Fold this sequence. Notes:
By secondary structure, the chain is an alpha/beta fold. The chain has helices spanning 43-50, 72-76, 94-104, 109-122, 138-149, 168-183, 195-201, 219-224, 241-251, 272-285, 300-308; strands at 5-14, 17-27, 32-36, 58-63, 66-67, 79-82, 156-160, 187-192, 204-209, 212-217, 230-235, 257-259, 264-268, 290-296.
Amino acid sequence: MPGAIHAEGLVKTFGDVRALDGVDLDVPEGTVLGLLGPNGAGKTTAVRVLTTLLRPDSGAAFVAGIDVLKKPNEVRRSIGLSGQFAAVDEYLTGRENLQMVGQLYQMSARDAKARAGVLLERFNLADAADRTAKTYSGGMRRRLDLAAALVVSPPVMFMDEPTTGLDPRNRQQLWDVIEDLVAGGTTLLLTTQYLEEADRLANDICVIDHGQVIARGTSDELKARTGGERVEVVVHRPDEIEPARSVLTTLGKGEVSVVRLSRKLTVPVSGGAKLLAEIIRELDGSGVEIDDIALRRPTLDDVFLSLTGHAAEAHDNDGKEETP
């Protein structure tokens, strides 16, 4: 049975650029799909197609069981969307923005006002609720936009890089809100460049590059594709590199890589903490003084680099934000 979000063979071109090249997606009801990819990979195009803002050249898509191409108006009544850029009326106050959205969804004025109050508190905007949005900082506008997407509780939500512009504290607050939404049965498609965000929130992750889905699985499944655990050792002196290499070759499961300038050796392993303890004993028995040793597990950054050949772009976001 197709999920709450389902797409088959989506293709979209812009001139000579194939932004979507046969994208298939399926998001079971009440789960989160994290869509990861570099800038220009096709993430936002996919969201725009699924939310009826862009018509694909070919393919099919269904949201909440509704055909996106045949019944776009019905789809819009069943979804919430927070795009990459805050879409607020800067001449209205924060409270008025949220009340307006509620009334557009045919909420009563009383219910819209009550819902606005709840969301202003949740997103730490209560003190600025009656200021016009044009006086808000960029991060505050972002939070207001996210609150607007949650005025009603749609069964399906799309969030396109929702935490861009938020400082770490507000990002954490939004993650809590998302987890509450999903716990209540909301289905979410989330695009992000913050790999730790997908690691925490997503039940499944799709990696998209050049308009194609190149990998899909849980966070643990994708990490397993990079080769598993590794031990990293930093020895105290350059002349200890070779005896350390000998120990790691014996106990490891593959080739030992060496960075002589930093005196660091790395080897793939299996056995976890038990093997790490054995390596420490053998290095000590060989007279090797250790400056640092660690058991590393692959991160989503490692997965991304392995699959796409390049690292995910970091946002130019120093977490600074004006306070109300």
